[in-house]
């Protein structure tokens, strides 16, 4: 029985889980949550995830976990054939974990804060503060890549690349990556976007782009 993913397609965290699952060759039972109808606030969903967010993963044994920065390492630990995406080596894993924490607290926080204002508070244009918040994320990522390593956590592709790519792809819709200012980020972004597993994110990203463009003037 396949794990069940409670989701909405345009969500960056959801898209990172879809990307990870595709990389693992793992089929998920995708269940779309109707947020306008309040499905995320129903008792049965709150029992799975008291924070009433997406994504939420329920494995075939009933185990539930939410937040892509927890879900993806779990999926890799259970279903991957090796540890390349989430290394067992403590020092390598520490770097991956740092990138995941950065994604959850800084990168996604910047993007989600702006998106929330657009979708729920009637914001119709980005101000300088919005642009600065997103560009600060790009600047940090540029520094992460400053040692010449091709991937966000070093020499090898890891789950950190998946999670950050999903967030940055949303950021790029809001504030396009300037390849002159952030050449390493631009190169990395294109490289991850060309991975086969990135195809799993494209439909949701297109929905996100359409949604944002319909709100901004």
From TrEMBL:
Q: Which SUPFAM superfamilies did the record assign?
A: GST C-terminal domain-like, Thioredoxin-like
Pfam families assigned to the protein according to its UniProt record, in alphabetical order: GST_C (PF00043), GST_N_2 (PF13409)
A GO biological-process term: glutathione metabolic process
Q: Where is the GST C-terminal domain?
A: 89-217
**Which parts of the chain are coiled coil?**
none
**Domain (GST N-terminal) ranges:** 1-83
| InterPro entries, per database record | Glutathione-S-Trfase_C-like (IPR010987), Glutathione-S-Trfase_C_sf (IPR036282), Glutathione_S-Trfase (IPR040079), Glutathione_S-Trfase_N (IPR004045), GST_C (IPR004046), Thioredoxin-like_sf (IPR036249)
The UniProt entry, under CDD domains, shows:
GST_C_Delta_Epsilon (cd03177), GST_N_Delta_Epsilon (cd03045)
Superkingdom of this protein's organism: Eukaryota
Q: Name one GO molecular function term.
A: glutathione transferase activity
Q: How does it assemble?
A: Homodimer.
Name listed for the protein in its UniProt record: Uncharacterized protein
């Amino acid at each position: 029985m396949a794990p069940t993913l409670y989701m909405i397609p345009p969500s960056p965290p959801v898209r990172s889980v879809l990307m990870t699952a595709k990389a693992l060759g793992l089929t998920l039972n995708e269940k779309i949550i109707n947020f306008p109808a309040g499905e995320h606030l129903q008792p049965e969903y709150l029992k799975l995830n008291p924070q009433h967010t997406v994504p939420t993963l329920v494995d075939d044994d009933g185990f539930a976990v939410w937040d892509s920065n927890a879900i993806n390492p779990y999926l890799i630990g259970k279903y991957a054939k090796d540890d390349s995406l989430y290394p067992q080596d403590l020092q390598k894993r520490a770097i991956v974990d740092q990138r995941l924490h950065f994604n959850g607290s800084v990168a996604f926080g910047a993007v989600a804060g702006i998106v929330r204002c657009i979708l729920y508070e009637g914001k119709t244009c980005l101000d300088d503060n919005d642009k600065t918040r997103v560009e600060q994320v790009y600047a940090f990522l540029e520094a992460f890549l400053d040692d010449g390593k091709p991937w966000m956590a070093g020499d090898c592709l890891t789950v950190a690349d998946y999670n950050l790519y999903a967030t940055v792809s949303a950021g790029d819709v809001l504030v396009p990556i300037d390849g002159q200012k952030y050449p390493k980020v631009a190169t990395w972004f294109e490289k991850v976007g060309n991975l086969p597993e990135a195809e799993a994110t494209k439909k949701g990203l297109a929905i996100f782009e359409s949604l944002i463009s319909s709100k901004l003037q």
